[in-house]
Write a structure and sequence with these properties.
The protein has 8 helices and 11 strands. It has about 230 residues and is of the alpha/beta class. The protein has 2 domains: about 5-125, Response regulator (Rossmann fold, 3-Layer(aba) Sandwich); about 130-225, Arc Repressor Mutant, subunit A, CATH 1.10.10.10. The strands form 3 sheets. A 5-stranded parallel beta sheet has the order 2-1-3-4-5, sandwiched between helices. Strands 6-7-8-9 form a 4-stranded antiparallel beta sheet, with helices on one face. A two-stranded antiparallel sheet has the order 10-11. Strand 6 and strand 7 form a beta hairpin. The longest helix has 18 residues, at about 110-125. It comes from Clostridium saudiense.
């Protein structure tokens, strides 16, 4: 399959879904399909999806609402499909975070070309986003933004530096002195135990249970390491 790229196609018209699926598979993509919004969100939450082709008018949840829900969790490309030609409808889709708009009826070959172009652009521009444990924790280095369960987490500069050091060096053991030097090196009078305080505060913000952490683990007598599972 093409670089393990998973594409979710959402449309209640089976013939449209079937044709798009065939063309995408010919290009080497892995394809998931849904006929309504509820099913689409379940697949999105269960699978690692890299791009969504999303019909605007679905029988249960509108395409705009689905787009908004997903974009609030993670920034992945979404191409809207619609029979609506009203400019306000198109603009509203873009306001919800849509990356492109395709008006029905459309050329499937042109749609596939747009998929390729958007994925290429995201690969170049969005490679600063890391996510862990099925998007439980998301770090957007370009925006200096961290999300936990879809909600923005407010970190101090030192906490953010520490999280970056850990997340970019998963499983690597760091001593307190190493973390002190990398994250708070300019504070000459800082003592190594200040790291413990920063990590305690960081855990309270990114862990489900700070007393039983799954991201920042203590290696007793040695230091700390990051144990989050990075999403593919």
């Amino acid at each position: 399959m093409k670089n393990n790229i998973n594409i979710l196609v959402v449309d209640d018209e089976k013939t449209i879904v079937d044709v798009i699926e065939v063309y995408l598979k010919k290009e080497g993509y892995t394809v998931f399909t849904a006929s309504n919004g509820t099913e689409a969100l379940k697949i999105f939450n269960d699978k690692k999806i890299n791009l969504i082709i999303l019909d605007l008018m679905l029988p249960d949840i509108s395409g705009e609402e689905i787009c908004k829900k997903i974009k609030n969790q993670i920034d992945i490309p979404i191409i809207m499909l619609t029979a609506k030609v009203n400019e306000d409808d198109v603009l509203n889709g873009f306001k919800q975070g849509a990356d492109d708009y395709v008006i029905k009826p459309f050329s499937v070959k042109q749609l596939i070309a747009r998929v390729t172009a958007i994925l290429r652009r995201y690969k170049v521009n969005k490679n600063e986003i890391m996510s862990f444990n099925n998007r439980d924790l998301i770090i957007d280095k370009d925006k200096c933004e961290v999300k936990k369960n879809g909600d923005i987490v407010k970190l101090t500069p030192s906490e953010y530096k520490l999280l970056l050091i850990f997340s970019e060096n998963s499983k690597k053991l760091f001593t307190r002195n190493e973390l002190l030097d990398k994250a708070i090196g300019e504070e000459i009078d800082a003592i190594d135990r200040i790291i413990d305080s920063h990590i305690k505060n960081l855990r309270s913000k990114i862990e489900d249970n700070s007393k039983e952490p799954k991201y920042i683990l203590t290696v007793y007598g040695m230091g700390y390491k990051f144990d989050g599972k990075k999403d593919d």
